[in-house]
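Below is just one:
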Amino acid sequence: MNNRKDSKTHGIDKYHHFDDSNDGDISGQLKSVYANWADAYDDDNDNKLGTVSQPNTVAMLTRHCQDPQAQIMDVGCGTGLVGLHLQRAGFKNYDGTDISTEMMSHAKARGYRKLLELDPTQQLAADENSYDAVLCVGVFTHGHLGPEGFDELIRITKPGGLICFTVNEGVWDEAQFDEAIEAHVENAVWRILEQSKMDYMVNEGVEAWYIAAQKLG
């Protein structure tokens, strides 16, 4: 028997209130969930979920980029936990964007140059080919964003730049992430530098896929 938990049904209490089973205002639901969760988010991630995706993804980035001046965008930055690890790794120039202004209020002290509100119905607030590296941690998950989100990450990354992201194991097969990733390989949009399955939420027994890709062209 598989005793591994799924964060959608066994995760943090505030996330339980989110319902992605219909065609309602999903972005509005997400904003409400994260507005209510913002003050407790860091403690819940560290002490209840045991989330390790932020340090794991930054470690993956540093294996392919050692330039402390690299221009980095953190998409779905939340409270800035990725930024905290970027800061600890010596990176100097990183921005963040998120759907929740309440979450981003906690990120202000974590080294971001600028924090931008994300509108899921619009392009990211960044120019084409503007970042050396784009990170997207914890966004490709239940009720959030599917592989169609790759297009914006690719758009704002410079040719030769890095795209580092996680995909919750619970949505990997259902949303056909592997096929979408391979399609971009076959179309010479990016090449995969790393792809591995590792711990994501340790206390929940949930893993995620960690992918580092280099934009071609």
Q: What stands out?
A: The chain has a mean pLDDT of 89. The first strand starts at residue 71 and ends at 75. The radius of gyration is 16 Å. Residues 18 and 30 are 7 Å apart (CA to CA).
